[in-house]
Amino acid sequence: MTDRADTASEHPRRTGPTTDPTEVERLLRQGPFHEWLGLRVLSVGEDRIELAFAWRPEWVADPDAGYTHGGILATIVDLTADWALVSRLGRGVPTVDMRVDYHRAASRGEDLTAVGEVVRFGRTLAVAEARVHDGQGRLVASGRGLYHTASASS
Amino acid sequence: MTDRADTASEHPRRTGPTTDPTEVERLLRQGPFHEWLGLRVLSVGEDRIELAFAWRPEWVADPDAGYTHGGILATIVDLTADWALVSRLGRGVPTVDMRVDYHRAASRGEDLTAVGEVVRFGRTLAVAEARVHDGQGRLVASGRGLYHTASASS
Amino acid sequence: MTDRADTASEHPRRTGPTTDPTEVERLLRQGPFHEWLGLRVLSVGEDRIELAFAWRPEWVADPDAGYTHGGILATIVDLTADWALVSRLGRGVPTVDMRVDYHRAASRGEDLTAVGEVVRFGRTLAVAEARVHDGQGRLVASGRGLYHTASASS
Amino acid sequence: MTDRADTASEHPRRTGPTTDPTEVERLLRQGPFHEWLGLRVLSVGEDRIELAFAWRPEWVADPDAGYTHGGILATIVDLTADWALVSRLGRGVPTVDMRVDYHRAASRGEDLTAVGEVVRFGRTLAVAEARVHDGQGRLVASGRGLYHTASASS
Residue D154: exposed, middle, or buried by beta-carbon count in 10 A (0-12, 13-18, 19+)? Predict the structure, then answer.
């Protein structure tokens, strides 16, 4: 149940449930790891978000083939599914567990985009899913996570 | 099926199945992302590996609470389970899919250790699991992945 | 990798890739467990299937609340996702692994329906997902599995 | 979150946390699906349980090869991991989600045994795992689930 995001008391200016991409990007980029990932918000809708990530050399899993590390893709699945809940919660919430499927290698230098959608929202727990695409629109990874929505009201 | 590691043709000097920690650390740290994670090999045994990771400020998910991002923990579960296979394969192999469970937050500044073990080895696919602990030995995350062992013989 | 279905040599009359609901139902109901589940095929499309299942008293997890056992829901997720591949493969294939999320209890006496869709098809492995609904159309479970498509060509 | 078991008010005679195999078997076999699976309790320990299941013809996935259906194995993983918590909770609790890995086919006529162990216990949620073996002691499936321990105190 890591990935705990800012709470109301810590960020008195947070705006509550929101679909404003600028505000969501501001919230997301408060996280140093999100900033390191070059995260940008492309769109926010009801139970849905689309994010972009800027490739960096440290993402590489191996020096020869140059593929992006699976851990980066898992990170993107996790946080994108998590923030698909922002239109209801106005913040990220702790991840309880996650499954990731890897479909194809993401090549050296490829920026990535990801779409997250809520599968089922509950006041205690929610399931959301995400799909990650490379620069040519090919599906490189997908998955789903369980998120602790109850912590958003604390 | 990302996370593809070096192949025989790319690394003619790789040594094949090994339990030599120095050699395994050399192989692992060829990956820029592994190096960025401050990875060290603590021990290697039959179907088993123990790794250490050095905290860095970019791991932080949120600037207030300072917890390590779940994506970092997912990465550690993935690669530790993968490299539990090194005593049989002598290298990392592509991850097919993964499940991660988050048990407690990893605090700011905490280095992490992880133990990986093979659940079942097959010539095409193998399942391995990993547990991640913080500096006080508390379990912060665990999980299991499916690995494409067939690619190790290519 | 259980759930291995009939092979060509065992069933010389199988028809190959098909979207004919009657033929698919015939294939599915060759399995004694599928018959026990009261399985019917509602529709078959490209990379998609919709199935129905008839409640029976043995499904009950507990005698008081009367809920359907999670194992029945897991079974339905598994086989529905698997058979979403029938438009490409003409048969079921072994499941490699599966994740199931439980969203709400399915009540005593509730027949169930399930929709399966292919997430990504590959010649060796494919990922497909399924959603299970109760008689009022409420989502009771969902999940995804990895399927060994290579075995369909044997 | 199905698989909800008896509650205190419904079963005033339940005994609370227990490691008595006879009592645990009595509780488990109150469930019609558990009885249908021919479930017996082999042993109960702290955070651990061992169960046995009696093969029946309806388990078969296909009439030719005769393998046991993956849904049966998923059911066994789920309920065995769940009841590994009985030494703390004295009952089964709802499953939130589950992952199952299939390692080899379970043959026609094979009774099965399963060992469940707690990975991490929490007052709200717990993770437990299970391994399923055939009559020759071969690992046929394994997995882990997330269980809603908070419901045990209701």
Answer: exposed
